[in-house]
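for the record, two folds in this file. i put them one after another cuz i was lazy. first one right below, seq on top, structure tokens after. the second one comes after a little note so u can tell where it starts
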Amino acid sequence: MRAQRGATATATERGRDALRVALSFYVANGLSVAFGLLLISGGVHLALGTAAASAAGVGVIVSAPPDLPGPRRGKFWQMVPSSLVGLPLFFLVQLLHSAPLRLGLLLVPATFLAFVAMAWGKRGIPIAIAIMFSMIFSMATPAPTGMHEAVERTLHFGLGAALYVLYALLANHALNGRYRVQAMADLLLSLSALMRTEARQFTPRDDAGDVREVPAPLLGQLLGAQAALADQLQATRDIVLESPRTPRRQRLAGMLVTVLELRDMLLASELDLDALKSHPGHAAALCEMQRILEELADETAALADAMLLGRQPDPVRDRRAELAAIHLDDDPAHPSAAARGPTPAMLARGLASRIGHINDEVLRLVGLARGEQEPNLAVVRANWQMFVSPTEWSLMPFLTLWRWDAPPLRHAIRAALAIATGYAIAVLLPWGSHDYWILLTIVVVLRGSLSQTLERRNSRVAGTLLGCVVAVALLSAHPGALAALVAMTLAQAVAHGFAVRKYLVTSVAATVLGLLQAHQLNVGMSPTFGLFERVADTLIGAGVAWAFCYVLPSWERSQIPSLVARCLTAQARHARLALGLGQLRAVQSSPELEWRLARREAFDSLSALVQAAQRSLSEPRAVQPPMEPLEHLQAHSYQLLAQLSAVKSMLVLRRDRLTPAEIEGPLQRAAARIEANIGSTPTTGPTMPGSAAATTVAESIPLPDPFDNDVSPWLLRRLDMAIGISAQLRDDAARILQTSPQEIPKTA
């Protein structure tokens, strides 16, 4: 019976996950792109015929990669570059269709220039891919019979691209409101997952176990979840914080601000957890806190589901009374019960209180979604542009690209050489009728890091094999023209929608789309040879992309020193502003705004470091960065953010229980000491053992009950621990920088 209930619960959860995917913003975006393709191709077919519709469809496919959910501001300039650059390249490939050598001489430098666009980061990647698609799909068309047909086909290509740019602007405007809700719901689901990971830390310690402060696997999951959330937060900011003029948009913006506060409170919730676990009899209290955290995570996910379904969220109950009932008796025989440190009862009440703040914010989230609370937008009302990504194109990434050790430059050279090799192989192959498939595989597989390329390689090969099976099943049913068109439209929707989220799904859909298109263009011919040919081409292209990862590599180790310096600088600035008293006078003040910007940079810099460390695990061991001190630095950065979040909560939420005269001096001194420790990248070795101890002063401070007395001593304890962690951070950085990037073996 229990097994049956478990299977039912699993099936229900899988169904809920499938529904969340179906209602997500990336699926909505994929459907929008597919509808645009269907609308433009069908319209051109009715007006100008089949050949024109085919070329216009290629124009749509080339223009589509930059069409991602985003703000309305800057959408035009995000869409136009790929069409403007792709049009002449499409035409040149048409002219050189029957001249393999000259076509190769065009492909290689054009590939280099296209991949240079990746210097603009996430904004440049889809444009680079789109430019490559313009050449590759031009190769996929039948060779033109003369100049007239090449010009005509190019004009039809341009017509499709221009119509799609116009369509994308209108569709993004129409879907903007839905994208706001979907992006916010997706962020809440990620926040719910982070809550569940945090709740796992409240698992009681076995009396016979010797568990470290934070188990390494769980800490890695927390860091990974925080890094993913930081990326997702910025994408959501760009959409939700754009022109929040209506009450509905303002509620979503208020929910986003609340999520930011919740992230800080989740960080602070785990403080003193290990100290409590060292006391006997802690299990019941921790189990109760864990249960409440998991229920809050469930309610956050339920709120996201209601938003996706367009329903009014259900009200949630306040768990403050349950948290207030949690208590732990002091053990007089235990040495920690002495006055020199917090007693078990104090620790348990402190943890429960911090979970209470999480409870309050979840209540606020639901209240905002239900329209029962008004959003507090004073924090960013006059400064929206400071929290969103710029939409203007700057020449700075291009001007700073021309250094031999610049990763985007090396990747552009690497991609050009890989395309040259792949094209040479394609020309020499005995079948050679679909040489573009090898190049297409190289373009979608080859990435700037070995880790990303390996993931794409595996997904591309597996997706092609699965896609071939699906395509054969569809073709064996002998679908009519309408059924084939519907199948291709759905394949385009899936291929575009999952391109960033799950490339395996995209690869399957793209293979189905390609084989169905080939069948439509070659009616009456058996698709069997084409099927096996595409599998072979995929294996060749994936192998070439993999091999060229080792040509002019940009190993993550070479980027670690700059990422470490950025992380330390961001942590020091965040500490200086978080410990300042001036920003408490009014939330609209400049210091408060500066602190929020500093907090974002602190999380973003740590996220970049965590992601680089994770990618480096796929690289050869000889070129990996020193992982042990790198893991320590990530953990200590996480802990410093947690301590400062706790201090900030005290300053904001419990100022009436603080004595300003007692804390102003320590706040300034703590900020100065943290600045001295990590304000600049260390160039010497670590300090002597014991110099980074965090408990010397803290243990000497008498700690009264935080709920009945002044909490200034507790704030001083947090400051002392933050100073100690900052010293540990400096030692970690010094150990990392002892290994110079110049010692990395060079690969030709």
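(here's the note) second protein begins now
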Amino acid sequence: MYEMVKGANVGLGSLIEGEADSVIVGLGWVSPTGEGDADVSVLLLDDSGKVRSDEDFYFYNNSCALDGSVQLLGKTPTGEGSEDRISFDLSAVPSDVTTVLITASRYESARFDELGALQLTLSDGAGEPLLRFAIDDAGAVSALIFGELYRRAGEWKFRAVGQGYEAGFAALASDHGVDIDDDAEETVETEPAAQEEAVEPLQPAADEQPRRDPEPDPPTTPATDVAASAEAAAPAPSVKRAARPRTSKKKVTLPRTPKKSLAENESWAGARLFPVSALKSDRDRETRATSVLLAVMAQVPEFGRRLTAGFGAHAGRMETFTEVSLPHGDAPRRPDGVIRVERAGKLWTALVETKTNGNPLKAEQVQAYADIAARRGYEAVITLSNDVALEGSPLVEVKIDRRRKNKVGLWHLSWAEVAHQAQMLLRHEGLGNPAHAWLLEELLHYLHHENSGCHGFHNMGPAWVPVRNGIQDETLCQGDPRALEAVESWERLVRQVSLGLGGELGRKVLPVQRARRGTDAVVRRTRMADELCRDGRLRAELRIDQTPGVLAVAADLRTYKIRTSIDIAPPAHGYPLSWAKRIVRELSEAPADLHIETLVEGDGGGPRGTLERLRPEPGDLLPGGAAKITGFRLSLFKGMGTQRGNTESGFIRSVDEAVNKFHASVVTHLDRMQTRRRAVPGPAAADDE
């Protein structure tokens, strides 16, 4: 992989064999506290170093260009944290766009020097890493230009920028011609029925001239044009514009409460586009699931593009096929499906191998399809199964001949991720065509039906029972490979729970990976396996967008209990007794057995008790003496199932139910409390003191 330094540039043609049409950029960082995050955005600039219009500004509310040139793919967990990925179809970038600026910004007073392992990676359309740019000197800035793609003499190049803005993203955006709202204190309210979320207006642009490294490649690029910077240094005119909602009112979304049925009684089953009653064998399930999914992908472009953009596919006309016969040695091979995307006469092709009902992928099958794809010039092999892929732990071992000119990308999708993406479009982001919304609704019904076999990760594997029994009778020793298998299954489960919760909320929910810089995924899991053998616990943390704190999950295999908890900081104003009363009051509708613990400085713990006991006496939460309160920990306990599978008493289901119950009954109250605090700026009013 080509290592970049700040200010350096490189032509993509020297890194990619053939035309550099499709690339994937990843922005990554590690948060020591687990709470750090940033929003990624892309700006398309013309010769003047400015956007042509606000439509050239892509962020989480405007994540995809109509021409397919830019698509924000969202966050993906990595071994050290998370990575925000962006897909670029450079052949579709308009000819009057000369620079693509890749940036990120932090919220409110947060700064990039609070994050570690800041880096940008660039891969080709097959996912093969090409270059890496590590930023070690971000400084106390809240907006950062990671890098830029730019044209020079008809060739696309990349420049490692690493330039920060102390005044925040408003200054960065204003410097490049984006009009922003000058009233940053107002909170935009939207109707819940419209399923919209307000976008916080950006702060007014500050008079700031950013530092930029000298451009070694003459002539000077638009993004670093001196005249443009001088123009941006002058106070920008204040232009009001409405905040962009997450979901347009014109789009069709799936109602949370279905319309009243006209059936005479509950025994009448509604007609479905994809029936599941006749599915009797695994082969039937695989064939039906493949055909259903590929058909919907071809007919709902928003959905098909969302699933394939991260694999390097073009944005264009998609056609899908099943049971295609391809020559391979003495006997032809028949992959479960084929996806082809055509744009401007260029074809992108992926072979699809599908498994349902928990059946594992077969290495020899996937290897054969990878060989066929390489020989025929296809771009990708996509596997679908109930399993969840983990970094550093491939589902199947496949050898890719790097000497071949045509590189084949090997990608995996879990059925849970397919359902998550469909749910995000239906419930939260919306689709412009009612027929497309209906097709996705039918697909979701099919995937969730017990007969489909597309239930997601639903078995902890053969090592689970021996590990659980070994912890119970204290015979499980550190270094036992079965403990590592159990940890990998646990990580798959946590990722699936994150997908389910994120699809329900319409927010990003990601597992937090706390690791030292440079620690790879296998080393981290080995350490977790040793902790499991020693303590008998499996732990995980989930970061939920727009939620204070991190949701922690701990499964104790000795007591058979699952603990879900969240730590919240004390209010910025008021007295400790006021804090205690306020927390108890805000949690008035939470479960009575909710545990509340006061966190204090030092090694000793603070007072604790159940919500039921603390309601009449919130003052019992106050520590004695001069101990300083650093926060409060809210916890719920639930008995866990002991079986491997996703049955009523199964471990997987009990973890999923524990997380969802804790969020619905506890975290939602904290979200409302945080929303009210934001809506009332300034010092808090006197509470109970």
